């Protein structure tokens, strides 16, 4: 059964791990809010998009839909392509998500890059409920983004210090998680396959189109590699 | 400026939200706990996480142009700082903050 005290314990374990996401999301969120305001969409619309969609890069792409001719089919096609990487997160978490019980639908609904990376790499301390832990990572990250974007609409123009480059905290977060994974020798073949296939596809297909081919390439290499590499108990 | 009417805007947002939920939920629908997932899919759960983080690192750096501008040097130097600091102190928040500050200083004042 789930108890309130185990939720508090999980919150204390989850919160520090989300701090880099707080920085990155507030910055990127504010920048997004400023853009929404610049096309004449206020706090209400911004809240609605962030609340319902909650996918940073997709929301940036969506700005172009809002300022073009009405074309929901095209919007759907682009959404599926930009967000296809989420499918890998789900495939990686089929077993892990079972620990979440009734919290499962929310975690799936809020499964962004950063939440997946933290959940999949965190060494959850002994005695901390895994379901609540995953839930709080998802919840906190989601609300950092929603609040950040709405703040961008309301106060974005008041920002006076030079924030250029602050969004690098998300890149830094992924690099650190990569290093933590790398620590475990059994993870290294997969990590190299991930980077190698992605770089190759980036060179071949360019920055806008490389994700889908990279995913296919990674799956292909894993399928052909048989039982090797062994992989870790991530 | 936004060109869509309010109902068109709402439909567009709902379509994007629906598409996004689909990409997040699809694997869980296709392989529910009640159904035995194929061996390859089971194996992917061990292989994919490290590979996906590698993909995400490349994804974050996808717009670097090695032939123009700063040629990716600020990113390279900031990542070098992160790697060195992380191998030395093993403190995630320290590595992330230091890397970000180095990157901001580099793109604002050096490049």
Summary tags:
heterodimer; A: 234 residues; mainly alpha; 11 helices; 69% helix; globular; disordered C terminus; B: 111 residues; 4 helices; 0% strand; flat
Write a brief structural summary.
Chain A has helices spanning 4-38, 43-52, 56-66, 72-82, 86-92, 104-109, 113-121, 130-155, 168-182, 188-205, 211-224.
Q: Could you describe the 3D structure shown?
A:
The complex is a heterodimer of chains A (234) and B (111). Chain A is mostly helical and 234 residues long. Chain A is globular, with a radius of gyration of 19 Å. Chain B has 111 residues and is mostly helical. Helices cover 75% and strands 0% of the residues of chain B. The radius of gyration of chain B is 21 Å and the shape is flat. At the A-B interface, helix 1, helix 2, helix 3, helix 4 and helix 5 of A face helix 1, helix 2, helix 3 and helix 4 of B.
- Which percent range describes the beta-strand content of chain B? under 5%
Oligomer: heterodimer
Query: Helical amount among residues of chain B, as a percent range?
Result: over 70%
Distance between the termini of chain A: 25 Å
How many E-type strands of chain A? Answer: 0
Describe how the helices and strands are arranged.
The complex is a heterodimer of chains A (234) and B (111).
Chain A: H1 4-38, H2 43-52, H3 56-66, H4 72-82, H5 86-92, H6 104-109, H7 113-121, H8 130-155, H9 168-182, H10 188-205, H11 211-224
Helix pairs in contact in A: 1-3, 1-8, 1-9, 2-8, 7-8, 7-9, 10-11
Chain B: H1 6-30, H2 39-60, H3 73-89, H4 92-110
């Amino acid at each position: 059964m789930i108890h309130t005290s185990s939720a508090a314990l999980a919150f204390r374990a989850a919160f520090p791990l989300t701090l880099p996401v707080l920085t990155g999301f507030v910055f990127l969120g504010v920048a997004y809010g400023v853009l929404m305001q610049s096309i004449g969409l206020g706090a209400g619309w911004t809240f609605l998009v962030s609340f319902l969609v909650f996918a940073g890069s997709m929301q940036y792409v969506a700005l172009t839909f809002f300022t073009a001719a009405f074309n929901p089919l095209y919007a759907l096609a682009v959404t599926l392509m930009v967000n296809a990487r989420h499918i890998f997160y789900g495939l990686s978490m089929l077993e892990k998500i079972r620990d979440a019980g009734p919290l499962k639908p929310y975690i799936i609904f809020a499964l962004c890059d950063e939440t997946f990376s933290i959940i999949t790499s965190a060494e959850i301390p002994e005695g901390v409920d895994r379901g609540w832990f995953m839930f709080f990572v998802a919840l906190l990250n989601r609300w950092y983004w929603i609040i950040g974007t709405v703040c961008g609409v309301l106060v974005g123009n008041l920002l006076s210090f030079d924030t250029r480059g602050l969004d690098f905290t998300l890149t830094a977060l992924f690099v650190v998680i990569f290093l933590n994974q790398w620590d475990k020798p059994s993870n290294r073949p997969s990590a190299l396959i991930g980077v190698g296939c992605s770089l190759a596809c980036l060179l071949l297909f360019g920055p806008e189109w490389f994700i889908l081919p990279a995913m296919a390439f990674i799956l292909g290499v894993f399928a052909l590699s048989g039982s090797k590499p062994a992989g870790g108990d991530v | 400026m936004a060109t869509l009417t309010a109902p068109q805007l709402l439909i567009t947002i709902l379509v994007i939200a629906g598409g996004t939920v689909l990409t997040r939920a699809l694997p869980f629908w296709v392989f529910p706990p009640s159904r035995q997932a194929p061996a390859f899919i089971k194996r992917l759960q061990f292989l994919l996480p490290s590979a996906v983080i590698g993909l995400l690192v490349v994804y974050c750096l996808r717009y670097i142009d090695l032939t123009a501008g700063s040629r990716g040097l600020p990113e390279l130097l900031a990542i070098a700082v992160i790697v060195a600091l992380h191998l030395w102190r093993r403190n995630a928040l320290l590595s992330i903050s230091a890397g970000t500050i180095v990157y901001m200083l580099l793109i604002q004042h050096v490049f």
